Amino acid sequence: MLSTRVVKLGGSELDRPDWLAACAQALVRLDPVVVVHGGGRAVSALSRRLGLPVEKRDGRRVTTPEVAEVVELVMAGPVNRQVVTALRAAGLDAVGLSGVDGGLLTAQPAAGGLGHVGEIVQVRVALLESFLLAGLTPVIAPMAPDASGAQGPPLNVNADDAAAAIAAALGAAELLLVSDVPGVEMDGAVRPALEAGDVETLIELGVAADGMAAKLRAATAALRGGARAVRIGDLHLLDDARAGTRILAPAVQPA
Fold first, then answer.
1. How does DSSP assign the chain, residue by residue?
2. Which residues of the chain have pLDDT under 50?
3. pTM as predicted
4. What is the set of active-site residues?
């Protein structure tokens, strides 16, 4: 298959049209690419306007059935449209999708008492590959129907986790987790590389918390699942192969 990159766009920068336009320009040079977007700030804003709780645990949103409806409304609606519009303006033939469309993603309820939150169990790779081979850039809102066929809104899937599952399923050349932080910072400096095996220790020590903890766990899951490389950082990831923090796959131990 094409040497595809999976790029997750998220963080508070997603609300800034100039940032999104800069991302789009950079993504043109990385084509073929699959884009997965967050949109947590927009979800939180509408939740507050509707008087619904906004609660996160380890960087993941606690999702009641009502909040799940807000996630679907915001992520598959205005946020997805903004990303598609920016990419199309930059010259990519972007097409907006949610994980529900074409059975692209399937999930099971996640453990940990987060409510209507899912973990991806299946990615319909052939559907993504058909888009890519047609020269299209899929832009995916991370939500997925329950594999059990349960009714109600789709399960809310953390965007880092969705991007990791897609990168693993595609055997992506690289997964880039792009937000507003330059990488994994320790003692005030960005670490150029981290071993996947050290991730849980860093989280336990509190070096990586909340959103960064979620990103690091997603990165290790992507590498375990078959993605060939993962970097975490800001917009510079898209222009500079050395930018951000590279997460290194565990070395295979000799038998």
1. ----EEEEE-SGGGG-HHHHHHHHHHHHTT-SEEEEE--HHHHHHHHHHTT----EETTEE-B-HHHHHHHHHHIIIIIHHHHHHHHHHHT--EEEEETTGGG-EEEEEPSSS-BSBEEEEEE-HHHHHHHHHTT-EEEEE-EE-BTT---SSPEE--HHHHHHHHHHHHT-SEEEEESSS-S-EETTEE-SEEEGGGHHHHHHTTSS-HHHHHHHHHHHHHHHHT-S-EEEESGGGGT-TT-SEEEEPPPPPP-
2. none
3. 0.95
4. 8, 11, 40, 160, 215
